[in-house]
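Structure in, sequence out. Go:
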């Protein structure tokens, strides 16, 4: 019986970004330097495969410092942490290794700069996400207000609207964030903005690549974890760009092959915390079940690299 023909278009760029590469390297080098186990507060990045592999090497993932012995190495995840966490770790003589993505750290610096200038700070982001919790925790409670959508931007009441600034979560939808900023700028013409866009280069590039996929694809598959903000945004961007048959899966075995019936061309991408190995795993499964023609345009080079913390290089 002949297999259904299926064209698979690979997005480029896709997968790991510089911040994720750095965070994983920090954990691996910490194990080399201090020996196992090392502790990581929260998942180092949002990907089960990555977390499980690091766990096998001797990493213990915890949600709170109370789960970590005194004097132990503690790594803060790429999403960043509230200021109270390093303070508590210092009080318990823990060896602190900060894997916060430098682009997230930039948002923290901007928020503090706005506050020091006497401005009310707005954070555009998703409530409950670790990055948002970490950013809100850079200031005292109530000094930064969270804006999640256009509706909140339209109804926001501020005591001093002339002294207002905003920062954003780094993994948001570029288009959705632009809509919120447009509303805020219209309502508060003097609102201060980041010196450089907060949404990270990897998020922007991957969303642009997915939009390009939708021009020629009947369906789009995003590889990424269900708790990964940037991966979820990729699936949403594909739908918004005109490809309603778009899904997010964590591994190839989660794909129901029936979903690809009547699909001629499927686009494939991966979130910034998903390794390329998982993309190739999906392609292998598709080749086992379909007559696959693989297409991949030249991938734009991302030559961003972040240095490691001095704790690991000294």
């Amino acid at each position: 019986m002949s297999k259904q023909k299926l064209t698979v278009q690979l997005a480029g760029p896709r997968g790991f970004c510089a911040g994720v590469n750095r965070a994983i390297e920090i954990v691996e080098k910490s194990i080399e330097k201090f020996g196992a186990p090392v502790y990581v507060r929260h998942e180092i990045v949002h990907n089960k495969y990555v977390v499980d592999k690091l766990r096998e090497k001797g990493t213990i993932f915890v949600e709170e410092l109370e789960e970590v012995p005194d004097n132990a190495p503690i790594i803060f995840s790429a999403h960043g942490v509230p200021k109270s966490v390093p303070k508590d770790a210092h009080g318990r003589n823990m060896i602190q290794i900060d894997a916060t993505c430098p682009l997230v750290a930039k948002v923290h610096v901007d928020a503090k700069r706005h506050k020091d200038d006497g401005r009310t700070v707005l954070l555009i982001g998703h409530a409950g996400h670790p990055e948002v919790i970490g950013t809100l925790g850079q200031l005292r409670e109530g000094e930064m207000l969270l804006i999640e959508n256009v509706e909140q931007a339209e109804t926001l009441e501020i005591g001093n609207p002339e002294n207002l600034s905003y920062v954003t979560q780094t993994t948001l939808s570029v288009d959705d964030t632009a809509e919120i900023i447009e509303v805020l700028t219209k309502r508060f013409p003097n609102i201060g903005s980041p010196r450089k866009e907060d949404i990270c280069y990897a998020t922007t590039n991957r969303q642009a690549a997915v939009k390009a996929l939708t021009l020629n694809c009947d369906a789009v598959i995003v590889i990424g974890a269900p708790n990964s903000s940037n991966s979820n945004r990729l699936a949403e961007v594909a739908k918004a760009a005109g490809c309603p048959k778009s899904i997010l899966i964590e591994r190839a075995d989660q794909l129901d092959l029936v979903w690809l019936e009547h699909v001629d061309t499927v686009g494939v991408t991966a979130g910034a915390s998903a390794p390329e190995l998982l993309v190739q795993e999906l392609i292998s499964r598709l080749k086992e079940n379909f007559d696959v023609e693989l297409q991949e345009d030249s991938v734009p080079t991302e030559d961003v690299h972040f240095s490691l913390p001095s704790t690991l290089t000294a």
